[in-house]
Amino acid sequence: MMKILLSGLVALSLFTAVFCFFFLQPTPDLPHGTVITKILVEKSKRHMSVFKGDTLLKTYHISLGNTPTGAKMQEGDGKTPEGMYIIDDKNEHSDYHKNLGVSYPSEADKSRAASMHVPPGGDIKIHGLPNGKHWMGRLHLFTDWTAGCIAVTDPEIDELFELVKVGTPIEIRP
Known about the structure:
This protein is of the alpha+beta class. Helices cover about 25% and strands about 25% of the residues. The protein has three helices and eight strands, in the order H-E-E-E-E-E-H-E-E-H-E. It has a single domain, classed as L,D-transpeptidase catalytic domain-like (Beta Barrel), CATH 2.40.440.10. Strand 4 (about 85-90) and strand 5 (about 100) form a beta hairpin. It is globular and about 45 Å long.
């Protein structure tokens, strides 16, 4: 009985340590004025990395569309697109804390959807948490919950909103 109790306490302690490190540990902010020249999203790793040239500046943990495997094929499929895009808009007055627009659909995305006789969808963003839900912080990472967007915490989108310029390339990989 004592062995079971001790192993349970060890498991609980390990879970608590991992939880606190991953979800409560703040990531260091990038210095004001940092220039981000490209963004790389690796969907399978749930990572978004930002670079200046070839130098990695920071990696963010992300949530994706609620059906994350595979490339976005049509409106409403819950998938996050895959491919080369650019940041084409910045909006600080949205249903989410702030957002950066992703130039999906590309001409190739539109052609693929047309060949399937379906709308390609659009309105793909990198965004913070829904307005009024900032308290969720990194807890949002427990699930993929967006309609196809890339979600980060509110402080992270604040940082990205300041440092990412319209026209910045973004590559989204499987």
